[in-house]
Amino acid sequence: MNAQKKFEKIIKKNDSLVCLGLDPDLQKFPSHLQQSEDAIFEFNKSMIDATHDLVATYKPNIAFYEAYGIEGLKQLKKTIEYIKKSYPEIPVLLDMKRGDIGNTASKYAIAAFEYWDADAITVYPYLGYDAVKPFLEYKDRLVILLIKTSNPDSSMFQDMEAGGEPFYMAMAKKISKWPEDNISIFVGATYPEELKKMRKLFPNKFFLSAGFGAQSGQIEKAVRAGVDKNGGGIVFNASRSILYASSGKDFAQGAREEAGKLRDEINKYR
Amino acid sequence: MNAQKKFEKIIKKNDSLVCLGLDPDLQKFPSHLQQSEDAIFEFNKSMIDATHDLVATYKPNIAFYEAYGIEGLKQLKKTIEYIKKSYPEIPVLLDMKRGDIGNTASKYAIAAFEYWDADAITVYPYLGYDAVKPFLEYKDRLVILLIKTSNPDSSMFQDMEAGGEPFYMAMAKKISKWPEDNISIFVGATYPEELKKMRKLFPNKFFLSAGFGAQSGQIEKAVRAGVDKNGGGIVFNASRSILYASSGKDFAQGAREEAGKLRDEINKYR
Predict the structure, then answer these.
(1) Is B97 a catalytic residue?
(2) Do the chains contact at A115 and B68, CB–CB below 8 Å?
(3) What is the ipTM metric for this complex?
(4) pLDDT value for B214
């Protein structure tokens, strides 16, 4: 089954557009977990077991594992293997934000799709088509191109005027001509107007979005802007607000409640 | 000692602007090495021992290690530790091409400068200042911003017209106003005109360049375009042409000869 179908199926089954970002931060873990040798894996496993019927995908951001070095990456490996074994219907979206010239990009693609076995990954398109192609050659996986990021300074370069429109838009228009079916689009949920424009340009592509805060108003705007004509075709990431909803022994239950609340809030506007 | 000074010192001592890219590819290794459990480290060690008086820096591209998974990254760790212990005067330039929003960028910065202990790394500036700042906070390390890449399709987005000039130039002009001293610049050696413009905009910054082929004419153009007013301030990467100069038992000697030839060829035009 190709990755886009896998996403569509679980979105329907769990009636959810929630992407849970598995971004571990040992200092925020419940104290009873902090001593464990496999603390990160055990924390992730608790999160996964508590939310597997409420989310559409798990998105580990590899930076949070690389910060703990090779030991951290071992925890990521165990986490991905656990999802694949216990909940094979849930796609793994590995947030790597990679990008390099052709020969090197093909090495990153091996890492992403063969070693980590991710269903989808994030990639910078800034280097041009020849640098993205090695990823796109894995036709059953999704390559999510970072078009417009969620951070405050994203306008600095991404909104620079390029031939009468913002740079990110000019870039997106060229990308819309690329022939591959397994292209996917990232736009920050903090920019609902831009998200709306991208949905118009890519009506049938799968989208990833992230970065909305706690305010319901922001969620409404982003969801209405981002869903496809069937009210799906996109997932919205949340990390800390779910992972660290409770810091006590009930941390998994706290996460489950937050994930459920976010699912329901998003579903109001689909 | 800050990283830029470390580069300047070794450039002078070894009279070299050569950056040796440690990009291991097991299939290209001499056959007697391929069976070893630590083949990548042993290959790298041979390269380092054979060239330490001829180069200015070693640049492992982490993609080539990630492709071998956690085992590959262990070989990278051993390689960096070996350089730091045996040749502490030679800076380690870790080519990671990372970039993410603030909170996540700070995790990549921990990985780069604390776990891997790199003297310099490569970073995408495309997300804006707030995404680069967590790297720049390591004031004794160099943050090499990818302005114009060496691949054929780099013109697709990087040369898009933005306010009457190419996008990469408009981006670079904004970056030139950033206050930090530890900013460094990457421009592909395949684009000597662009390299020349960037040297003019950043007369005192340290540069990394890469991608010139075997033709002497290309080397001459890139070197003349990239050096600072003292004939230094830049390193030029070569990987495969040195690493795999010979595939026999004399592979280290073959690499030494190629590195020496490249050093001398570059020095003709400084």
Answers:
(1) yes
(2) yes
(3) 0.97
(4) 58
